[in-house]
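Subject: Sanity check before I submit

Could someone independently write out the structure tokens for this chain? I want to compare against mine line by line before I put it in a report. The sequence has 74 residues.
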Amino acid sequence: MNAGGSLLTTPGSAFTASMLRDIEQGGRIESDHIVGDLLERAPSEVLAPLLSTAYAHLRAYEARRKREASSKAG
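---
Independent answer below. Compare away.
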């Protein structure tokens, strides 16, 4: 494993994925660009259902964020 990869997998590491940081801060995420693209390319019957579940959760997050933003504006 390279040094960069070990930063993300070391127990107790403070490093996180950028999408997780965006979600924790209530920010915009790129679910279509990242997980949506992976889902389209998913080669296996095992990986596709997992990505589909993750994608559904991310889309729900985006819908909630949009709904809450519009209720604050109106």
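---
OP: Matches mine. For the report I'm noting this point. The mean pLDDT is 87.
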